[in-house]
Amino acid sequence: MSAALLSVAGLHAYYGESHVLHGCDCHVARGEVVTLLGRNGAGRTTTLKAVLGLVASRSGSVMIDGRETVALPPHRIARLGIGYCPEERGIYSSLSTEENLLLPPALAPGGMSVEEIYAMFPNLKERRASRGTHLSGGEQQMLALARILRTGARLLLLDEVSEGLAPVIAQALAQTIRKLRGQGYTIVMAEQNFRFAAPLADRFYIMERGRIVDSFGAELLTAKTAMLHQYLGV
User: Fold this and answer.
1) What is the DSSP code string of 138-152?
2) Average pLDDT for residues 94-99, to the nearest whole number?
3) pTM reported for the whole predicted model
4) With contact defined as beta carbons under 8 Å apart, do 176 and 146 qualify?
């Protein structure tokens, strides 16, 4: 296994007085696809936000490519080459597809060109002049993912990217994630949809009530069926 690009140890996170994450430990090797699984409220989204510093308070250790970042503000963490695709997508309704795509600044060298992005997402090229509110849910999700690929980020944090998508769109998105993995991107997905995540991930972390309760590689999926039923109801 390659050296860890992301290493989290004893991570606690708070929203005001609410203690949401309780000492999470995980790591992601360079080039891996890792999925955080769990029911709603398990702490998956908060884990991604805590990695980026987007929570009110956090403690513990978050090492990104060997650098401790737990005391850094979000804009400095992002410049280490991290792209975040939020669950709510964050598409600006008053801007066109292409304007949304061009909005984030480049954070690191090596980002995809607009032409490369349009080759990966041909629907976005066809809708490049359409306003954000005129895109379908699947097109908005594609745009949210495409937007971070322009920035030069190599560690991608994807929050519930399959949520609300028609099966055919989810399959196309899964194929895109496979292509990105093949191009050397490191991907962390927070997913409730186990059937979407199962064929994509190299490893899985199961979360429950703000804690990681189990972790295993893709080769152990069959052996972990009973445990997955317990925690996910799949």
Assistant:
1) HHHHHHHHHHHHTTT
2) 95
3) 0.94
4) no
